[in-house]
């Protein structure tokens, strides 16, 4: 199987920006799809932009003509709506689709029973169906929690803005984590190994951490000001609480995030990757010094 050359990307947000950069560095011909050319900033040299009307299947199909791969990095709110995009990719003759599904345990059969994971599982099944019909290939990336996001951008292991910590059980659950830059490198590496990454889940991580270790580093870097406020969360009870809320129709982003955090820190699902594809994709790993430097930079 020949290596891919032309890659389209949908969703140049926080993650998409890192992915575009790594694809361009790896020598791919990259096209960013967008509703408005004016909204796309900081494009690497050589990367093209294509305006698309996502409400028109014909517009999406036209924009994807001649592309080998479509990488989707849209945000949470758009994950469930990927089927029309996949259909357009099939109609355009795109060879491989990488879904917006970069998470900790979205391919774990038990985790897929959780409402917060169900949209990703639905898209995975849709892609398997299309691949079974010989219409398109797929690669799903399991990356663990986004390391550069959970140590400052969002209140995950701790909340630096309020100096508060919700301890999930004993804080000792070991989880795989990956930075956005490494996710970009992983995607680029996988597309250079098309046969080895065809129609399968690819596991990558930078470093395994615990909530307790991340909190230790946060306290080290935020030593001044008021004391940290600490509370405890029982992950089983929290998962059930969010399930009850969702049954009542309260499926908002906050409830989903609460369910996701409890699921990841519960240790009940596949959030620690004992075996990864780092070597296949030419990826290294983070040292403790790298982790400390990242936390210090982000805080």
Automatic annotation (TrEMBL):
CDD domains: PCBER_SDR_a
Taxonomic path: Eukaryota, Fungi, Dikarya, Ascomycota, Pezizomycotina
Swiss-Prot/TrEMBL keywords: NADP, Oxidoreductase
Domain NmrA-like: 12-239
InterPro entries: NAD(P)-bd_dom_sf, NmrA-like, NmrA/Isoflavone_reductase-like, PCBER-like
Pfam families registered for this protein in UniProt: NmrA
Organism: Zopfia rhizophila CBS 207.26
Protein name from the UniProt record: NAD(P)-binding protein
Signal sequence interval, chain numbering: none
One annotated GO molecular function: oxidoreductase activity
